[in-house]
């Protein structure tokens, strides 16, 4: 209980409350801009938190984290372009609603579902995270190695793009993290006598380059014309409409949380899974799905926001990123000298419980600002990209430079930006690389510690929990292979069918 | 337009990286502790993984997105060159001047020609961010010190 009091006291600080609101506002703008995902937004706004105290900085970024996840639905509904990957499933019914002249209805459904899903998930986070942290205190090297491997295999196999490219991307991330001093023996690796490299690659510079600068380069190439907003229709939700979307919203919210709590699985997958399950279990007319059924929007939006919050469970309790945006949050905490993990719950209860309360407050704020400004937010998508992306580039430079006032880090950021750009062009997903950089050292150090602890035998891999986690990791790789094979088969059948015609 | 040349190039580069890491791992010191698999074990394993998987894009290339051409290509190359220039002069002429010049050049590169935008945006971003970061937040940003100016 005293932890909650400490958290409450910390949140009641005016600067924390102001930054909670500001974070949500920024998040909505970030999410509503196509190309600016929660990950990019948090990366770009990192330098604003360098000099803040940990909690105010964290609540600002958490506001962006959750606000952007909601607002990604705005361009998904209005333009058929998800503002963030998490809203990809929202397009399926959201855009057809816009074409029927129900854009306002769809936007309101999205807002209510996002807030309900988010609050449900936050309650589940509050209940489960301290318990998970308690259990995680008992974890040794074997468990942490298995968790790190699970996170890597899931992100490499469930993300977009081909499995081989995902695994390569993750492996390169692990390699990048090796530059510098070895954590166990103190030996230098991949430094080639360069003093800048012996300190390791600065994580912030790397992720700002991969997500800020690379995205800016990609968007500058694909710059499109100004977006036009079509007719909105009514924004008002009637009681019958709320009742119609209610069960879906709650069910998807619960489901999304568990999906998001898997390491490396984000709101995009949460949204798709919930959408499919909703369609499968829907009562009444199923043909409406894909034609503009508000239940489809509610399912996708409730689940992606709850998956986003669920992603905080492994992030905070284990230090294993729940999704890409959460990986950037880990970077932000590391800058503050804080390492997420079970110890954080004991050493910084005000921070942990304060951020839980701030997330809840944030969703209430989101409901208010979302409802009040719903017409204005829809205009954000009209900000000309030519004005936006130069600013993103500048903020990327500031983030890289200011983290330790080192011009070398700007160079790292630039190289990472160009690398990220070519990866996007070549279909190599970037997310596994970032997860690799963060969990790579966890995997390596704990593997070696486990080998030492068990006298050079691999028997620790057969311990119950590590075995189950490693088996899950292998299963996700096989699932991905199976899915790819099935996809190819369907594709060739389709080609055959069209040829016969 | 799509091409599968990108996958082939990526495959070759990745294979080269794998070979390099594999060879390099043999120059790393032996473990201090007897049971420690050592600092070379993981790099070597990763080199094998990357090397084997590099064969997938190399031998079964998928069509990817083509590199930009003409105007699009120049926008990208120009932006990267401007960023390099930014990094080189940042510590010399300070954040505000560098940023104003960068935004101005970038806006011109992206085809913005409205005089108002070209004046307001660079000055607004340069001075605005400097004030926000350096004055309000106390984040260290370099100043030029030219003529004793505080920017």
In short:
The complex is a heterodimer of chains A (501) and B (151). Chain A is mainly alpha-helical and 501 residues long. Helices cover 74% and strands 1% of the residues of chain A.
What does this protein structure show overall?
The complex is a heterodimer of chains A (501) and B (151). With 501 residues, chain A is mainly alpha-helical. Chain A has one domain (2-385, 403-500). Helices cover 74% and strands 1% of the residues of chain A. Chain A has helices at residues 2-11, 14-32, 38-45, 54-71, 73-79, 90-99, 103-136, 141-158, 163-178, 195-198, 203-221, 239-261, 267-281, 294-310, 312-318, 324-335, 342-347, 349-372, 374-377, 385-402, 407-426, 431-453, 464-500; strands at residues 180-181, 188-189. Chain A has a two-stranded antiparallel ribbon. In chain A, helix 20 (385-402) packs across helix 21. Chain A is globular. Chain B is mainly α. Chain B has two domains: 2-64; 72-136, no CATH class. Chain B has five helices and two strands, in the order βααβααα. Chain B has helices at 5-25, 41-59, 70-93, 95-109, 115-137; strands at 2-3, 64-65. In chain B, strands 1-2 form a two-stranded antiparallel ribbon. In chain B, helix 1 (5-25) packs antiparallel against helix 2 (41-59), helix 3 (70-93) runs antiparallel to helix 4 and helix 4 runs antiparallel to helix 5 (115-137). The longest helix of chain B is centred in the middle third of the chain and has 24 residues, at 70-93. Classes of the chains: A mainly alpha (501), B mainly alpha (151). Chains A and B meet through helix 9, helix 11, helix 20, helix 21 and helix 22 of A and helix 1, helix 2, strand 2, helix 3 and helix 4 of B.
